[in-house]
Protein 1
Amino acid sequence: MTHLKKILLGEQGLVVIFAVAFVIVSLAVPNFLSERNMLGLLQSVVTIGIIACTMMFCLASRDFDLSVGSTVAFSGMVAVMASNAMGSILLGLLAAVLCGAVVGAINGVVIARFRINALITTLATMQIVRGFALIASDGRAVGINDPSFYQLALSRFLGIPTPIWVMGLFFVVFGFVLNRTVFGKNTLAIGGNPEASRLAGVDVARIRIWIFALQGIVCAVAGVLLASRITSGQPNAATGLELSVISACVLGGVSLAGGRAAMTGVIVGVLIMGIAENVMNLLNIQAFYQYVVRGLILLLAVLLDNLRSVAGRQRV
Amino acid sequence: MQDFLEFRSISKGYPGVQALSDVSFAVRKGAVHGLMGENGAGKSTLIRVLSGDQSADEGEIRIDGEVQHYRSVRDAFHAGVIVIHQELQLVPELTVAENLWLGHFPGKGGVIDRRKLIGVVSQKLAEIGIEVDPTAKVASLSIGERQMVEIAKAVMLDARVIALDEPTSSLSSRESEILFALIDRLRANGTVILYVSHRLDEIFRLCDSLTVLRDGKLAAHHPDISKVTRDQIISEMVGREIANIWGWRGRSFGAERLRVENVAGPKLKVPLSFAVRRSEIVGFFGLIGAGRSEMARLVYGADARSQGSVSVDGAVVPADSPPKSIRAGIVLCPEDRKFDGIVQGRSIEENMTISSRRHFSRFGIINPKKESELADKFIAKLRVRTPSRRQDIVNLSGGNQQKVILGRWLSEEGIKVLIVDEPTRGIDVGAKSEIYEILYGLAEQGMAIVVISSELPEVMGIADRIIVMCEGRLAADMPRAEFDERRILAAALPDIKNSKDLPLTQVQ
Ligand SMILES: Nc1ncnc2c1ncn2[C@@H]1O[C@H](COP(=O)(O)OP(=O)(O)OP(=O)(O)O)[C@@H](O)[C@H]1O
Ligand SMILES: [Mg+2]
């Protein structure tokens, strides 16, 4: 029992859970292991996976961001409308990224400079930004004039769809940034003890602003890919996304108390979320039940986080 | 008298560290027993085992001949063992009386009997001679008073064994005296007291017997403390002789390096001015609360200044930002290790290089080899006791954490002014002299150093000049040749009328 506990709560606990779950699912669920389903599964977690990269930084520095879902919808909308208006997809993409960055930077400045609670701030921007998406589109989906916009999501490289490559690239880049750069280490230090970090010469406010700005940019990338996949800008896209992303991070061992995060954990967390959804779809479980399961997974994740920090808090 | 508290072959290991191995000794009834040893020797671990917070891998504890099988702090409570940790465990928003009753409030049907709540407490407090208002909120008490309340709690629970882990490290000398008087009364009642400290004077002042731990093993046990000498204890702790802890040596000073002019802030109303020359070590002495740490924080830009300027080598330092101060060459090693120092959950290496890592990174990418070399170098230099630089800093003993935080600043490059606030708090004698040696070395390279300390012997031992602060003002300024204990103390005391209860000084 204690041995099992040690494994489950240890560094590699999540990977073990994941491996076990994966084996069980592949044996029990028909068609799960097929190439088609695997790619579909990965496709389905692209949005969560990409955003989890920066959400990891956000949580690791003891912050919180609820506005990601709205930013995804808004920037997808901007990409589509700007492409249509300017007749250039590239300009549309740039506009989307710029909008994402602005939303993130505003979050960051309000939170870090004016010291407003991150939960409240992003709860506010979440609604404001969603409002903008609805106003701009008059509440309706906006189609794309230039069909080559679809290629963003449809094109493949070595048989694997581009969005999956993008997600993989983000995993690698942000994993490196977290572990090997001053920015990443300072992020973790801020989460561990903000005051000590400040006194140690870390520019805490600047780093927090950067984290939110990056988060905004990354949301824009995810938003563009999503819009391309659903072939339109949808003002109601990605509702509730913030919770899935945070669940994935927490499930991946990112501590809500800050200071603890690992890219591998987050990747596994994202995959667990994806598999759960995928399996429920394969088994034809009604969408309503899926909410319950998603909630249960989140609860499990938080419980695990709690158990882990209790186990780690042998000494006070 | 017979042995009351007995440790028998206690062993306790953590991953990579044998914190205690085969420790056996006994303490008589009514004795105050000292526990000494270097940082990481296992003192706190032994106390944690005694308190039921951690269980030993092997061995047993006997109280009054009875083997104790408790597995939790609560069990230990019921066995009459109470531990007072360095970080106090009171609820700040509750009153003294409420804190003392916490867990078993008097009353019926969930309604608290207020009269009993306060009555019993005031009686108990009077009995043990503690002057604290039972209806005051704990948050409004000084650290010393809080400690008294903790002890009162132990007494109220009829503790047979009370263990105190470095209780005086954040007390003023007057508060310490009150604590000592209380310990004397408890001793007279037959309570066994286990007393952990790095201060030899206190050990000699208080203890009847003494145990020295080294590397988790019993290094010496002295049933009668009057039969040992200071030097003997030091060499038992450190494993070598330390002839002169301070090791001060003369230096010639250069031009003015740090200039502080009319600096004031919200907590320090009276503007302060002083200067420090190259290669000079200035000691700031004062009672706790004299404003030394506030001064340091203002100079460093940790708190916003309301007026005044700070300059280094003639160049004005921007007022409000530690990163800018560091770039200008000023650093501050803060006083409060837990809140302002360590980054919990991160490794020793990361804690040490948090500031300096920008020097060995290119385009923001850290060179891991250089980072680990630097960490290893200072782990060795400061003799941090740890299996690896990757160890989470919270797993280190208190004194070793302090060493890591010091290492953070000693490893920073291009520093011109170093301010250290209580640098050796909780640090053992051996490491202390190591730290002083490093400070002298830095001073010789031209650094201007400010050492804030509440230990007069330390300030007098290592400083080239002493500035005394009292109630937020500079009260005296004297060069080494004029050092005079009485004058320094007189300057530190708020009011001449109080001079009859001069703080007892410890002379090392
Ligand atoms: N939870 C833990 N995990 C790993 N190592 C630990 C843990 N707790 C204590 N240690 C190690 O056990 C050893 C003894 O620690 P302990 O806290 O008892 O020292 P100490 O004598 O109280 O030192 P100090 O004087 O610095 O307070 C140290 O090397 C410490 O790093
Ligand atoms: Mg200790």
Protein 2
Amino acid sequence: MAAPVSLQVEFGGGAELLFDGVKKHQVTLPCQPEPWDIRNLLKWIKQNLLKERPELFMQGESVRPGILVLINDADWELMGELDYKLQDQDNVLFISTLHGG
Amino acid sequence: MCEAAEDGGCGAGPGPARRRGQGHSHPRPCMKCGGSAALIIRVGDPFCRGCFHDYFVHKFRAMLGKNRVIFPGEKVLLALSGGPASSAMLRQVQEGLSRETAKKLRFVPSLIYVDEGAVRGQSLAQREQSLAHMEALLQATGFPFHLAHLEQALELPASILRPGPGRSGKPGPSYKEAVEGFIQQQRQEGDRNGGTFSPGPSTQELLQLFEAVETSTAREELLQMLRTHLILQTARTKGYAKVMTGESCTRVAIKLLTNLALGRGAFLAVDTGFMDDRHGDVLVVRPMRDYTSKEIAFYNHFFHVPTVIAPPLRTKRREKPSIHRLIERFLLGLQEDYPATISTVYRTGEKLSPAPAKAISESERCLLCLCALDIAGEEELALEPTLIMEEPEENGCCQDPPAARAESKAAYIPLLCYGCRLTFKELGPLATLPPYVRAEAQRRIRSAEMEQQSLEVPQEDEEPSKS
Ligand SMILES: [Zn+2]
Ligand SMILES: [Zn+2]
């Protein structure tokens, strides 16, 4: 059983417009049998933070192409992407490079 | 949403579905220095923060050095949108000017920001807030700056649709002249009167113009046109011979395919290339077109480059997304599975020639985009079916004939290139179009008529030439 995980989740580049314009979110993920990874975090974000038009942020189980993900200020491509296991106090930043719509 | 049941505390987590790779961080080494990498750039190379910074800064200087179009001491207008690419461009110029002499950039920058809030659905309060934010950023640079509002495009002179006196044929100013100009150059206080803007009839007029446009695609094109003309006018009246804009490689690739779909295939090189010389006296250069939008986003994040986010162009309810948005979605989706997509499209663009866009005389220059009319020969066959104008029923009988002719939408068609014809058809009635467009169109229609008459009349009493 994994303990609850506290994270700072941030949105930038216009992605914050999908989250009421709020850039920084302090998030506590509840304990669950599986360790939390980015895949589960995205699902959690979709259910708890993203209120409307999820297709502008997500595609399938991942983020929409054109949205960058940084884990503790590093490219998620270096960190295992969806499979990265979240640690307590991690910082996850989503930056949109899209023009919108 | 059916997955909602899965959420909520312990024990309700999803099953261990498809897992691939190692979930843990194994920072790969930077390919330059072996330190721990912070991101992967275009070709899959890991870079640490420091090496990425050097790579990014070097690329800007290399781009300008390779193309050699900006003279020392020359006044250059940086067109800023508050977005990531133009903000990163501004930072490169700031870095470049503060560097030690050997590597220093030697042109004289000024800045322009065009407030497009009216058509981006911003309230007056939001517009003022964005503008104040932007003004503070511009002011902090210490460079002269101009604030403009999209509304001002409605007051542009018709001459903006004519190329200025070009440098074509003539050599440019000598190095000595350029350096003297540099010494004389005084830092001026920027135009600040734009800051105390209050919306009025011109905002209404601008909104009517955009409302009347039938598709979001044509609305995007219209916005780009007005913005370009407004920046160009500032460059002309304030004496800037160069304008820098911030399209990234990703944007260039999207624009290439978009313009192809918009029927602008003949003009891809000027529309997206490093250099755009269609306006004659003012050269538009695109020094950011070698950076991907990912590189720009990481640079801005790592090095604290401030940006101001503008909401997307307002679309009508249940309207189809623009071709611009669809191509963006398509290309980025493709890029996800085929990581070479964007750079392949971009590099294909490098091989295109600007020659087909060159117009020799006014009669073969497009009224709106100033490129050469690409319609010779194929007019009747390929174009007409797509361009049948649905004229509203107007009682033409009581209008004076020449004005009525010049004021019909169909009369504009021969003045436009293929792509602009398609866009023009989706614009609203002539009465909503910007005055400068109508004035220039009428002038050209009249001058074409006069030319026609002068060709027809003297035919009879002309003496056969003896040769
Ligand atoms: Zn390094
Ligand atoms: Zn055109």
